[in-house]
Design goal:
Chain lengths: 690, 470
């Protein structure tokens, strides 16, 4: 077994909230070697902790409730975090997801991860539930369980202000808002105010532990193997070369050179997406937007909006600077709201998806999501499902409505009354009705969702799938494995569709591979968006790439300009390892396979690797004619994807795959079979090396 | 793409596509290198550029992206990595189009050093970097390009440094070379840009070939730089004029097809860049059909003009030559091409026979063309050429027209003119003339290969392979 690579701190912090105890111990060298860091290390630690629960459950993966104290919350950093490697601020969270019932896996930027690492730890595993609300404070010398601040604990801003004041300016705060405290299944964990470990309901897991916040203040240095090579001004060094590529990449080059992300933030992608017919509209009814309306909510609009002041900011070691701090001002110039964002996905899901083309309510809704701790993608997708069902119900005569539709109308009536209207009829109620295009309903809906106010608020907080089932229209849920799909319509980009389908955490555009941009960014005409031959392999290769980013702890946006080869060089200069891009791909495959095993043990089947019916049934208009996802071809692509990862036709990793990837050190195949309660084929084609 | 952007892209797609394909066919790019841009004549705040990662040789509508001068827009997210450089170039008054390509010879000659100056003239250390000039030593290059600044860049791909310096160079020159990366050219149209970039590469190819054959190209380049192209090559080159193309004074489809096919062949084979050279056929005792280019890619217009063969003082040198040929010889067809390899070989043979002074100071070394037995010639060494024509006539650029005509009479219609190119003449068809200029490049190529093998690896000298017969 190899010694720990440089860049790691060598320690794992175990926190038992029930006992009020925290204990550091040595990081397992075997795990570090196999999984490196970030999402890899976090997934491995989560799987290990679940396996330990076999003392209480035959199959803890299936048995453990995501909101039970037993569900671990794992926070993991990576060796390059905190070094000069560009965008090396990203850290990862793993847990069993209350939204999907499978693996929860989510990533965030900002500064918290670096600061946590500087406390001398690579990862933290939190179990149990504190008997009373508690703040966990970690620095290089100690871990403390402190009383919560005397502020509104539902407000991320208030908690963060208070704890920064308590622990000093260098302290970084992670907390949840009202959504997490009220166990909303789409609650986010917030860090550094406006950053989010957004997807999968991690905020509910955090809140279920009676954890108010985790504050960190680090001081430990991070040692690297080749500091001279990591010096940004060393032209022969790996970091300089990476920066040189970032300075030239069309999405990442500086604002004075019209780089999209630095100039306009992530919202700069909106106009391009719409140009190429990819942008969601009305709960994926179509992708048709009026160009003039899109221009009102695109990056150019935000940059010059009369009511929104914008300031550019960058994450740790990031030359791109796509972050936007904003202030909403009224007609007199008085600031009425401020925060980070809105980002592209937020505007896509609160704007384009809901047929709302007004940045002011979108921005205000975004601030609410930051302050109250909601995942904006899931929030937007859930509201879209609600609006679709509401439209169906309202179009019917009352006596023709189904039971679910009647329930929705009743809940909506209660909602508008709570907002000050008398009933669903009348002009005031009309402004609040949850209908597509109704911008004035957006902020009240988000508030109700975060707080779980009333039956409608609680339905919204449960996510789109549960909401749609409650109101009798499951077909309105645009989710995979129960997690809402983001802004890219899968009918226009089949490789992205594959990633949505097979990503372990659910409808995700990143972790299963962020391939949508090749349709409009890369210009590789030989691979159009709607083609099945080879699509599975492309999707898999993007999955490797994005998983590697999560393992490395770097930002996917830098990947528009830097390849895994450049990252491998920088990783080697940090760690002293001699990795190639192909080694990172092997680690990625290992992580994907372990995530797969986790989900299978939670009870997932290939039927969960599928898109909502709408995408197979309802064609949409694009420039070339119409497009839909053809079912037969998608089944074939799914099978090819499985095969390309060394999984069988049911999506079960083969024994040979588990062995070749060294996963039997964590979970042997025989053990997996016992827990899964089924026999899966132990034979398979011989392993191919990458 | 939808809406307005899609409509505009469709309109200019044919021109961009044909231009990109033309560059690809002449090895000006690999699959995904290079970029083209064109201003929108209707909206002056917009220009169109090829997308990043597009195949310039196989463009489709979605590869043509609109970008604004005044502000960042969605197109910037898709536009070529070098879009910021194009933005600056297109801001030069009078510039409507720009091309950047990775032509092999243009890049090859940029690998030079100040203490060697094999191909480039060292200008000094300017703003902390080494600056050179590529000075074409052939007539077409000298007139079309003049001095081509060749810069060394710390980051030679899409950098701010390139954005600052390249437009500055292009404000004064039609072309500039980026060391190790290739030429950027500008023009009043995409067609003009294709013409200019083709001349850059052909002149670079000629320069490299001449140098490798032992010609002191540095001395030549310095001489031309000091005296100017018109002093060294008094035969003016016709300025590019897009309006000159598209006129057909014949309706005969066979004739038009034949001229187009010859122009396409010469273009694709690299015998002459677009809008250089000329070709003609005598159709009556008094008239000819004249095409003011010997080279054009598919999709580009040529012209076929019906002209009298009587001398006219307004004629440029090439038109004058065609007319004189038809008045004074029995030839029926003629083709003049830039033929970089043939032209370079001609320089080398003259230098070997008469010394470098014959090229650098031509007025100081007279060449006797009248001796039927002992005038300068180029001796082919490849089998086909030896079989067809064991000797090719050879003249210096300042040779009297009568001397060139003699060469064509004595050597089956084939003549290399050092610094000018290749002249082919046929008694029956244009194809005969085409064959001469085409095989002329091969002749030169084989001779160069043998010479290099001899010099570098001790192989037999050229004389070993040259045919003994006259």
């Amino acid at each position: 077994m190899s010694p720990l690579p440089r860049g790691t701190m060598g320690r794992l912090l175990e926190v038992d909230l029930t006992a009020g105890a925290a204990r550091p111990h040595a990081l397992d060298e075997r795990l570090a070697e196999l999984f490196l860091g970030g999402r890899g290390l976090g997934t491995a630690l989560l799987a290990e902790r679940f396996l330990r629960l076999r003392v209480r459950h035959q199959n803890p993966f299936r048995a453990v409730d995501p909101l039970a104290p037993e569900n671990p919350l794992v926070l993991a950093t990576s060796p390059v975090n905190g070094t000069t490697v560009p965008t090396s601020a990203r850290f990862h969270a793993n847990f069993k997801s209350p939204l999907t019932g499978g693996i929860g896996s989510t990533n965030s930027g900002g500064r918290w991860g670096v600061e946590f690492k500087r406390t001398g730890h690579d990862a933290m595993v939190i179990t149990g539930r504190s008997p009373a609300p508690v703040v966990l404070f970690v620095d290089a010398d100690s871990v403390r369980f402190d009383a919560p601040p005397e502020v509104d604990l539902d407000d991320v801003e208030a908690v963060t202000d208070a704890l920064e004041s308590r622990y000093g300016r260098g302290a970084r705060v992670m907390t949840v808002g009202a959504a997490g405290r009220r166990l909303a299944r789409i609650a986010a964990i917030m860090n550094d105010r406006g950053r989010a470990l957004g997807r999968g309901g991690g905020g509910a897991v955090f809140g279920s532990k009676n954890l108010v916040a985790i504050a960190v203040a680090g001081s430990a240095p991070i040692e690297t193997a080749a500091p001279e090579a990591l010096r940004p001004k060393n032209m022969a060094g790996s970091v300089y070369k990476a920066h040189a590529k970032l300075r030239v990449g069309k999405l990442t080059k500086p604002p004075e050179q019209f780089g999209i992300l630095p100039s306009m933030g992530t919202l700069g992608l909106l106009g391009m997406l719409s140009q190429y017919d990819e942008l969601v509209h009305c709960n994926f009814r179509d992708t048709s937007h009026v160009a003039e309306q899109i221009e009102r909510i695109g990056g150019e609009a935000l940059a010059s909006h009369p009511a929104i002041r914008v300031r550019r900011r960058a994450c740790f070691q990031c030359p791109i600077g796509c972050t936007r701090d904003t202030e909403l001002v009224d007609k007199c110039g008085v600031v009425v709201g401020k925060g980070e964002g809105p980002e592209f996905e937020t505007v896509a899901m609160f704007g384009a998806d809901l047929d709302i083309y007004d940045l002011e309510p979108i921005t205000e809704a975004n601030y609410l999501c930051n302050r109250l701790g909601l995942d904006t993608i899931s929030a937007g997708g859930t509201i879209a499902a609600l609006m679709e069902i509401f439209g169906i119900a309202r179009a019917k005569r009352p006596d023709a409505r189904t039971a679910g539709e009647r329930a929705l109308m009743a809940d909506a009536a209660e909602f508008v009354r709570a907002c000050g209207a008398e009933s669903l009829d009348g002009p005031k109620a009309e402004a609040l009705a949850p209908a597509f295009g109704n911008a004035r309903a957006l902020v009240p809906l988000v508030r109700a969702m975060a707080r779980g106010d009333g039956p409608l608020g609680r339905a919204l907080a449960s996510g789109g799938r549960r909401l749609a089932e409650r109101y009798g229209h499951p077909e309105a849920s645009m989710a995979v494995k129960g997690m809402e799909i983001p802004a890219y319509d899968p009918r226009v980009t089949w490789t992205q569709a594959m990633s949505y389908m097979i990503a372990a955490r659910g409808g995700c555009h990143l972790q299963g591979g962020y391939s949508a941009p090749i349709a409009f960014c890369a210009g590789y005409g030989e691979f159009p968006g709607m083609k099945s031959e080879g699509a599975a392999i492309v999707a898999r290769n993007f999955a490797y790439q994005n998983t590697a980013y999560d393992v490395l702890g770097v930002c996917a946006f830098a990947g528009f300009s830097i390849t895994l080869d450049e990252y491998a060089n920088m990783l080697n200069d940090v760690t002293g390892l001699g990795m190639k891009a192909s080694d990172l791909e092997t680690i990625a495959r290992r992580v994907l396979t372990l995530e797969r095993l986790f989900n299978l043990l939670c009870g997932f089947t290939p039927e969960n690797d599928w898109l909502p019916e709408r995408f197979f049934r309802d064609p949409i208009a694009v420039e070339e004619g119409t497009t839909v996802c053809p079912e037969g071809e998608f089944r074939a692509m799914r099978a090819e994807y499985y095969e390309s990862l060394g999984w069988n036709e049911r999506g079960v990793p083969r024994a040979t795959t588990i062995e070749a990837l060294g996963l039997n050190a964590i979970l042997g195949f025989a053990e997996f079979e016992r827990m899964a309660g089924a026999t899966v084929d132990a034979q398979g084609p011989p392993e191919r090396t990458s | 793409m939808t809406g307005k952007a899609a409509g505009a892209a469709q309109k200019i797609l044919p021109l961009m596509r044909d231009t990109g394909r033309a560059i690809m066919l002449t090895r000006g790019n690999n699959t995904h290198s290079g970029n083209l841009s064109l201003r929108d004549p209707a909206d002056r705040d917009v220009f169109y550029i090829t997308a990043s990662g597009s195949q310039v040789g196989a463009l489709v509508a979605s590869d043509i992206v609109p970008v604004r001068f005044s502000r960042v827009s969605w197109g910037d997210g898709r536009a070529s990595t070098e879009s910021t450089i194009h933005r600056q170039i297109l801001s030069i008054p009078g510039v409507e189009a720009a091309i950047h390509a990775h032509y092999l010879s243009a890049i090859s000659v940029s690998f030079d050093a100040k203490d060697v100056e094999n191909y480039l003239v060292y200008e000094g250390n300017v703003h902390g970097t080494e600056e050179f000039s590529f000075v074409p030593i052939d007539r077409t290059g000298a007139w079309v390009l003049g001095r081509v600044p060749s810069g060394t860049y710390v980051e030679p791909v899409g950098s701010k440094e390139m954005e600052a310096r390249i437009p500055r160079y292009l404000a004064e020159s039609r072309a500039t070379l980026v060391k190790g990366h290739g030429p950027f050219v500008r023009g009043g149209s995409l067609e003009e840009c294709l013409h200019v970039v083709g001349v850059v590469d052909a002149s670079a190819k000629l320069l490299q070939a001449a140098r490798l054959r032992g010609v002191d190209t540095a001395a030549l380049a310095r001489g031309i730089r000091e005296t100017g192209p018109s002093a060294h090559y008094p035969m003016r080159v016709r300025a590019f004029d897009a309006a000159a193309f598209g006129r057909y004074d014949t309706r005969d489809e066979t004739t038009i097809g034949a001229f187009r096919e010859r122009a396409l062949f010469n273009f694709v084979q690299g015998i002459s860049p677009y809008a250089t050279g000329s070709m003609s056929e005598k159709i009556t005792e008094r008239e000819m059909l004249y095409c003011p280019t010997a080279s054009a890619p598919e999709g580009y217009e040529i012209s076929i003009l019906r002209l009298p063969i009587d001398a006219d003082e307004r004629d440029d040198w090439e038109l004058m030559f065609h007319k004189t040929l038809y008045r004074d010889t029995n030839h029926k067809a003629c083709m003049i091409t830039q033929s970089p390899l043939a032209s370079a070989e001609a320089m080398a043979v003259l230098a070997e026979r008469y010394g470098m002074e014959a090229l650098v100071r031509p007025g100081s070394v007279a060449i006797d063309y009248a001796d039927r037995l002992d005038h300068p010639v180029v001796r082919p060494i490849d089998a086909e050429a030896v079989y067809l024509n064991p000797r090719v006539g050879l003249c210096r650029w300042d040779a009297p027209v009568a001397a060139v005509l003699d060469m064509l009479r004595w050597h089956k219609g084939a003549c290399f003119v050092a610094g000018v190119g290749s002249i082919g003449a046929g008694k029956v068809t244009l194809e005969q003339a085409a064959h001469h200029v085409s095989s002329g490049e091969s002749i030169a190529r084989f001779r160069q290969a043998v010479h290099l093998t001899h010099v570098l690896r001790g192989g037999p000298p050229l004389q070993h392979y040259e045919p003994a017969t006259q």
